[in-house]
Amino acid sequence: MTRRYASAGAVVATDDLSSPHILLLDQIRKTGERQIVAPKGRLEPGEAPFEAAKREVAEEAGLTDTHYSAYLGQEAYMFTDNDGTPAAKTVDWFLFTTGTTATTPARDEGFVQAHWLEAPAARQAASHPQFQQMLDRALAVITWRAAHPLPFSRTLSRLVNQVAAEGQAAIAGHPDAGVGLCGSAARGDFIEGWSDVDFIAWNLPPTSVAAMTLHEIVGEAAQRHGPRASLHLADNHGGDARRLGPLYDMKMRAVLRRVGLDTAMIAGAAPTPTTSPELTDLAGDLAVLHEFAVTRLATSHRTGSEREDTARRVLSVLSSAGRLLVTRRAPEVGLRLPDVVEALRDRPDSELRLLLRDYDAYRRAGASDIEQAKRLAVRVPGALVATKRVIEQSASR
After folding, report:
1. What is the pLDDT of residues 86-107, one digit of tens each?
2. Mean pLDDT computed over 53-64
């Protein structure tokens, strides 16, 4: 029998996007071994990875003034425990940013000194190669945001912290239920005024008091902090419990499969791994996305906000199409738009890739020119049709 452990940790960076410094801790273990590590530790009973990461940063570094900025993914590996028992361990990693470098290392746990190092020095100093991979992911997010620049959103951090804390209490009576954070708010490319904050919940009856309470928590947090936010419930088959159609079922299943990749657990327990076969009708999925885009673009709009909302949603469909192509080819690849564009480099349907590249550039510049967004949106149906045609031609050979 395999013994299982779960931990969480954080890459903590100063909030200077142009020259971030990374927190590492000098630790002397009970064995006398000396190592340079990032704050991390085991989950306590009933604790979600997000809350565990915050707690470990506070306990090991004495640093409480941090802000959630991104989810970096889950590290998983096997090893042999001290008594010879096979063991499996997962470590969920987050990116936290801070405006202070004042730390108080926990000497009773062997932490003797805190270091704030520039990125190259931090990568070289870190004792564990697995952490270097997470550090690279964090630096990719920071570099992307530094181009405009786009400071990490403090309102997003406050919203996520509130939903995580109150959501944990709301689902306390449902031990198998959990709440996740997905989309741009999880990937680290959330943009104030443009991006939505998407939460999902699983293993929770849609009509339960807990589900209704979660909806209220998300609504109140969004009203208090500003960003648009919504909660989506998964049904027993991994689809969307609202029965809104195949597009929403497809997105829900995709998000659930990404828990530990770029969907972060912020409350409760992990979802049960899906046993259903991977969807193979890629052309059919693209047809669903195309229909949604065409319908939205054909809708009459009376206000500027309605036109902006249509552009945002159609461009979201574009992103979904690119990510769908990538996940079918390489499920482990990150789904930030720059990664998607790079992963599609050798595909023959270049129209979709070029449009994704242009959309990524638009977002990187702050997503503030709504006229440009509308120009990008009207190109989406054509790019989806061209991609669908390539896929069908490949299937017929």
Report:
1. 888 899 999 999 999 999 999 9
2. 97
pLDDT at position 280 over 70: no
What digits encode the pLDDT tens for the residues 194-213? Answer: 999 999 999 999 999 999 99
- Max alpha carbon distance in the chain (Å)? 70
Q: Does domain 154-268 have CATH number 3.90.1720?
A: no
Question: In Å, what is the CA distance from 41 to each residue of 28, 348, 354?
Answer: 15, 45, 42
State the fold for domain 3-146.
Nucleoside Triphosphate Pyrophosphohydrolase (3.90.79)
Rounded to whole angstroms, how far apart are CA atoms 184 and 264? 11
Amino acid at 286: L
| CA within 13 Å, CB half, 175 | 2
Give the helix, strand, coil percentages of the chain, each rounded to 5: 45, 20, 30
* Alpha carbons within 13 A on the beta-carbon side of 86: 4
> Do residues 17 and 145 lie in contact, with contact meaning Cβ atoms separated by under 8 Å?
yes
Separation of alpha carbons 333 and 231, rounded Å: 25
DSSP-derived secondary structure for 107-129: GGGTEEEEEEEEHHHHHHH-S-H
Cα separation of 237 and 226, whole Å?
Answer: 33
The answer to pTM > 0.90 is yes
| Residue reference for tokens 């010879």 | 84
Task: Find all residues with CB under 8 Å of 345, minimum gap 6, and list them.
Answer: 353
